[in-house]
Design brief:
mainly alpha, ABC transporter involved in vitamin B12 uptake, BtuC, 0% strand
C-alpha cells in the first residue's frame, strides 16, 4: 500500500482528478484530424464554424466525456461485484453482465427494430439484470452453494451462452450486423452528446448510491455474519449494490457496447494504492477507470491510423496480463 495517511490519499485523489482532466483535454485535441491545443481552446472560446472547430465540439468533446463516464462506471461496478461476491475475478464482463446487456440490445434491434439510445438503455438494463440473476442461480447449484470459483464458472458459462446467441442473431440478420458490429467490440467512436445525456441520470444514480454504500461495504467485506452482528441489513445492502451494478454496467453497454477488463483491473490497482477502505476505493476507482479508458481510446486512434481500433480491443490488450495475474493469485490463495 503506497498511500497510508488521509492527507496522502486526498492529495493522490486530486492528482488523479488532474490527470483525468488532462486526458479529457488530450482526447479532444489528438486524433486523425490534425489540431492543436490552441485550436481546441479557440473552438470553445472563439468558435468560427470551421471544420476543425466543428469536429472538436460535436465529435471529440462528447467522445472524451463518454469515455470518462463509462470508465468510471465500469470500474465502480467491478468494485461492487468483487465486494459482494468476495471474488477477485468478479467484473461485469467476466460474470456475463456485459454479454447479457449486449444480447438484449441485439435482440431489440433485430426483432423490434430499436434504434434510439433510450431504447438501448432500457433493454441494456433488462439484459444486465437477467444475466446477473442467471449467474446467481447457476452458481447456487450444488451442495456448497455459492463459492468464488463456482461464481466465476457460472459467469463464464452465462457469458459464452449469451455471446453465442448474439452471434446467431448477427448471422441471420445482415442489417443488425451492420448496425451493431462495431458497437459490440466496445467503442466510443461516433457517439453524440445526447447519447450520454440520455444515460447519464442512471449512471449518476449509480455513482451516488455507491458512494453512500461505501462505509457499509467495509462492514460487508468482513463477512455476512460479522456485518449482521454489527447491525447491518445485509440483504438490503446486497440488493442495493446489485442494483447499482445493473445501472452502471447496463448504462455503459447502452452507450459504448461491452467494453471489457476495466471492471476487473481497476479495483485491484486501486486497492494496491490506497488499501481496502471503500470510502476511498470507490472515488479512486472512478478516476482511474476514466483515466484508463481515455488513455486506451487515445491510443486506439493511432494504432492503425487512419482507421481506428475499437477501444474494447485496446482495453483487452491492456487488461489480459492483469487478468491472468489476478486469476493465478486469486485461485492459488484459495
Amino acid at each position: 500500500m503506497l498511500l497510508k495517511t488521509q492527507f496522502q490519499k486526498t492529495v493522490g485523489l486530486y492528482l488523479c482528478l488532474v490527470l483525468l482532466l488532462f486526458l479529457i483535454c488530450a482526447s479532444i485535441v489528438y486524433g486523425y484530424t490534425d489540431t492543436s491545443w490552441k485550436v481546441a481552446l479557440e473552438a470553445f472560446t472563439d468558435f468560427n464554424g470551421s471544420k476543425e472547430h466543428l469536429i472538436l465540439q460535436s465529435v471529440r468533446l462528447p467522445r472524451s466525456l463518454i469515455a470518462a463516464c463509462i470508465g468510471a462506471s465500469l470500474a465502480i461496478s467491478g468494485v461492487l461485484m468483487q465486494t459482494l461476491t468476495k471474488n477477485p475475478l468478479a467484473s461485469p464482463e467476466i460474470f456475463g453482465i456485459n454479454a447479457g446487456a449486449g444480447l438484449a440490445v441485439v435482440i431489440s434491434v433485430t426483432i423490434f427494430s430499436a434504434g434510439s439510445t433510450q431504447a438501448y438503455t432500457w433493454v441494456s438494463f433488462l439484459g444486465a439484470a437477467i444475466a446477473a440473476i442467471g449467474v446467481y442461480i447457476v452458481g447456487s447449484f450444488g451442495r456448497e452453494g455459492l463459492t468464488p470459483l463456482k461464481l466465476t464458472l457460472a459467469g463464464s458459462v452465462v457469458a459464452v451462452l449469451f455471446s453465442s446467441i448474439t452471434q446467431g442473431f448477427l448471422v441471420i440478420s445482415e442489417t443488425t450486423l451492420d448496425q451493431v458490429l462495431f458497437w459490440l467490440a466496445g467503442s466510443v467512436q461516433g457517439r453524440k452528446l445526447d447519447t450520454l445525456t440520455a444515460v447519464l441520470p442512471y449512471l449518476a444514480v449509480g455513482w451516488v448510491i455507491s458512494l453512500l454504500l461505501a462505509s457499509k461495504l467495509n462492514l460487508l467485506s468482513m463477512g455476512d455474519d460479522v456485518a449482521k452482528g454489527l447491525g447491518l441489513k445485509v440483504g438490503f445492502i446486497k440488493l442495493t449494490a446489485a442494483s447499482c451494478v445493473i445501472l452502471l454496467a447496463g448504462g455503459a453497454v447502452a452507450i459504448a457496447g461491452p467494453v471489457g477488463f476495466i471492471g476487473i483491473v481497476i479495483p485491484h490497482i486501486t486497492r494496491a494504492i490506497i488499501g481496502i477502505d471503500h470510502r476511498w476505493i470507490i472515488p479512486y476507482s472512478a478516476m482511474l477507470g476514466g483515466i484508463l479508458l481515455l488513455a486506451a481510446d487515445i491510443l486506439a486512434r493511432y494504432v492503425i491510423m487512419p482507421q481506428e481500433v475499437p477501444v474494447g480491443v485496446m482495453t483487452a490488450i491492456i487488461g489480459t496480463p492483469f487478468f491472468i495475474h489476478i486469476a493465478r493469485k486469486g485461485f492459488n490463495a484459495n
